[in-house]
Design brief:
Helix content: 40-55%
Number of helices: 6
Shape: globular
Oligomer: single chain
Order of helices and strands: EHEEHHHEHEH
Largest sheet: 5 strands, antiparallel
Structural class: alpha+beta
Distance between the termini: 19 Å
Number of domains: 1
């Protein structure tokens, strides 16, 4: 089983610092991430900036389409209106097929706003606690929401979006 963890920070730069701390632990073979992406929303910007973790590309990370769809549901859905509601609903349903809890997506939508950032991480089950310890050791204390991804969901996720 895998877990999708969403760490939100009260500063637009902290998610990148958090990802750097996690990559440092990966290089020391103390942690293994499946994939990660960051969202940064400076107060001066009208929309958030997203970035998939480039360091994970060689490890068979998910295709960027996964993150694009997820971020589209989180950030674009509230502004699309009724005309696109059915399509967004279908996409949200697809994430449920992978075992990703709608509540985690809704929580991210509520907490990521101008002046904040977030780190999205997919890691094997059990690593979520390790992630929090690494971030705390780096002086970062994010809010966290997690969704367990059952084995059948993980297989389907990598079948559809894996590289």
């Amino acid at each position: 089983m895998a877990t999708l963890s969403v760490f939100t920070f009260p500063d637009p730069e902290e998610a990148e610092r958090a990802l750097a701390a996690l990559h440092a632990m990966e290089r020391e073979h103390q942690l293994r991430l499946n994939d990660a992406a960051t969202v940064s929303w400076p107060r001066s910007e009208l929309a958030p900036r997203t970035r998939q973790s480039a360091n994970l590309a060689a490890l068979g990370a998910l295709d960027g389409a996964f993150w694009g769809m997820l971020f589209g549901i989180i950030f674009a859905a509230p502004f699309l209106g009724a005309a696109a509601g059915a399509a967004v609903g279908a996409l949200a349903g697809r994430f449920a097929d992978f075992g990703i809890d709608d509540a985690v997506i809704a929580d991210a939508r509520d907490r990521i706003e101008p002046g904040t950032s977030a780190l999205f991480v997919i890691a094997e089950d059990g690593a979520a606690a390790d992630l929090m310890h690494v971030l705390a050791a780096a002086g970062l204390l994010p809010e966290v929401a997690q969704s367990a991804i059952p084995e059948h969901g993980r297989r389907e996720l990598w079948r559809v979006f894996g590289r």
